[in-house]
């Protein structure tokens, strides 16, 4: 499997961070209380001090200290993360939409009708404004045309190949490099405290699984996403799974709470999202007892990344958006809003 | 949560076994090669020496020795187990069918029509012969009538309550005591060798999740089963998931291969089943490279448990049965058939 050097570097740094954390933890026994405090503060290095960072530290302290009334048994430590806009860049369009566009360009000669037929026409014309207004039905049509008709193994190969070559127009880097370093640190910090970290995405489950281990340290079995039907075929004893142009599960909005229950069967103690598509995931998390971490990433940094939603500036997608209503709800329910501008010391590992 | 003393004892013994295994592993460094060989043979104490036990030992040795050409990286060590007839008793009827019957008896006064309407009539009349011939559609009807219409939390409570009181007619014990001790040892042995153990059952996912951690040491997120649709409701900020009378996923036959890919996203290295319902799971496992353990539990012990399938004696269920064709396929594909009579020193922990 080809791996971009920079992504490899980032993984290397993450493993180094984990190794350092582990080593520090081991020697801390012989160190002073001050040294231990230093160690426990180290994991979120790309975060500025402030209420968001503090909320994460307080949550981990409460749920992992056996003497705390909010202590959570290790087998129940579940944390769920949205992907697009929460773990990596989603503007001007989802990475998966870019993948679909490139797949459509590759397949266009076999489909002359796409040039005059929506939603394909807008995608091929690179009409970003039109694409942001696509409905779920439009997206389904595009997914069926570009993500189906091959085996699971073949699809994995296509996505992997694309991820190593396609680049983001503004940042000129492959998409898997555009993950948020502060969030990589939250994933590592929670895992170092025996939380299982899951991705719960409205995006394609198999698309994300192609790189989740390499990029996020999250294995395929902890990626929950939208999926299409697969068909089991066996010819001459050779078994295969074929991707069909039919929706199986829509893991967005209420689908996120349903998907969490379906795949995990436990209510998360921590959930982080960034849009109305994550609202029910946070609500489902909130409905449990004890200490629960509920956070929304707020894109208010046009200089280093993008500003959209109530922060204005850019057109947001029609599905999964940070509305003023969501901001109001976050305030009324005491969900923590992470300001990318104020809370994040750096956004990308390459900064 | 109420826990029967005997089940508690069994869990205690399992934990003791694990603790002993761990302690032995730690001291083995200072021990002789002979002592190590002794330690590695200890885990399958309820198995007689023979090809089945040897197949498990050989598989684990090959996949966990870094010098072996069939070594498997830790993150890819996936093992999948059927439940009914593989991990616990399924005769004369699945435990979940007994649960459904008891639920129907409890609800019968609200449904006078059941007395003269199939498939309900046969269940209420305790007509085992008729029930074994039920189709998947019949079972769906019964599940919709007995497993839906309440919240997930309420259903969990109902199943848990039932499991602590309902007893098997022949063995006079709660169903969760009727797990096969040799298989509990296989689960523990594989986990001690860093395999993730999953249940992949045609039975109800949420039914099994109610006791999987306690009985098998398998957490809810590693139980894949058949499921019905759940609906997310939120009233006054109080979120809940309601079970609906509609099939979501049928995790049997080809559904087992599809379910494994959907939930895990990796091909298992080991799969153990006992019926045609597990055929595609074993075939999907076989289709991978390297060392793969494929086994079928064969019920040929009428004295200590039951004899059915090609071993004859008892009527088998219509769906998920050990046919002569499956036995022939197992032989032609070199899938290991576990003879309960010959391979298992004891069947239950209480023997």
Count the helices of chain A. How many? Answer: 15
The low-confidence parts of chain A are 1-40
Principal-axes geometry of chain A comes out as globular
| Strand segment tally of chain A | 7
Name the strands of the widest sheet of chain A in spatial order: 4-3-2-1-5-6-7
Helix content of chain A: 40-55%
Strand and helix map with partners:
Two copies of one chain form a homodimer.
Chain A (H helix, E strand, L loop, with lengths): L4 H24 L4 H9 L9 H14 L13 E4 L13 H13 L12 H5 L3 H5 L3 H12 L4 H12 L17 H12 L3 E9 H5 L2 H5 L6 E13 L2 E12 L4 H10 L6 E4 L5 H8 L6 E6 L25 H10 L2 E4 H4 L8
Outline the structure in words.
The structure is a homodimer of 351-residue chains. Chain A is an alpha/beta fold. In chain A, 42% of the residues lie in helices and 15% in strands. Chain A contains 15 helices and seven strands. Chain A has helices spanning 5-28, 33-41, 51-64, 95-107, 120-124, 128-132, 136-147, 152-163, 181-192, 205-209, 212-216, 254-263, 279-286, 324-333, 340-343, and strands at residues 78-81, 196-204, 223-235, 238-249, 270-273, 293-298, 336-339. In chain A, strands 4-3-2-1-5-6-7 form a seven-stranded mixed beta sheet, sandwiched between helices. In chain A, helix 1 runs antiparallel to helix 2, helix 1 (5-28) runs parallel beside helix 9 (181-192) and helix 4 (95-107) crosses helix 7. The two termini of chain A are 26 Å apart. Residues 1-40 of chain A have low confidence and may be disordered. Chain A binds chain B through residues 75, 78, 152, 196, 205-206, 209, 213, 219-221, 223, 227, 230-232, 234, 237-241, 248, 254, 257-258, 261-266, 280, 283-284, 286-287, 333, and chain B through 75, 78, 152, 196, 205-206, 209, 213, 219-221, 223, 227, 230-232, 234, 237-241, 248, 254, 257-258, 261-266, 280, 283-284, 286-287, 333.
């Amino acid at each position: 499997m080809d791996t971009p050097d920079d992504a490899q570097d980032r993984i290397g740094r993450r493993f180094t961070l984990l190794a350092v954390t582990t080593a520090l933890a081991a020697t801390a026994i012989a160190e002073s209380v001050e040294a231990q405090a230093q160690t426990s503060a180290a994991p979120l290095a790309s975060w500025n001090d402030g209420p968001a960072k503090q909320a994460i530290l307080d949550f981990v302290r409460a749920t992992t200290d056996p003497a705390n009334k909010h202590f959570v048994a290790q087998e129940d430590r579940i944390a769920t993360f949205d992907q697009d806009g929460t773990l990596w860049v989603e503007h001007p369009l989802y990475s998966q939409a870019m993948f679909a566009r490139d797949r459509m360009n590759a397949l266009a000669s076999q489909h002359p009708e796409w040039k005059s037929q929506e939603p394909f026409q807008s995608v091929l014309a690179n009409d970003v404004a039109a694409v942001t207004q696509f409905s779920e039905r439009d997206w389904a049509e595009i997914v069926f045309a570009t993500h189906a008709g091959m085996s699971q193994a073949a699809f994995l190969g296509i996505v992997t190949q694309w991820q190593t070559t396609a680049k983001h127009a503004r940042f000129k880097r492959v998409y898997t490099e555009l993950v948020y370093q502060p969030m990589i640190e939250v994933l590592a910090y929670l895992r170092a405290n025996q939380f299982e970290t899951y991705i719960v995405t409205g995006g394609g489950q198999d698309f994300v699984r192609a790189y989740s281990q390499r990029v996020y340290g999250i294995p395929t079995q902890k990626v929950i996403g939208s999926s299409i039907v697969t068909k089991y075929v066996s010819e001459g004893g050779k078994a295969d799974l074929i991707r069909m142009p039919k929706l199986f599960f829509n893991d967005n909005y209420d689908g996120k709470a349903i998907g969490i229950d379906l795949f995990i069967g436990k209510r998360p103690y921590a959930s982080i999202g960034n849009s109305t598509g994550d609202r029910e995931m946070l609500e489902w998390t909130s409905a449990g007892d004890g200490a629960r971490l509920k956070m929304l990433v707020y894109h208010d940094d046009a200089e280093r990344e993008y500003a959209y939603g109530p922060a204005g500036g850019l057109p947001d997608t029609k599905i999964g958006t940070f509305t003023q209503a969501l901001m109001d709800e976050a305030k009324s329910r005491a969900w923590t809003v992470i300001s990318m501008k104020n809370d994040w010391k750096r956004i990308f590992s390459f900064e």
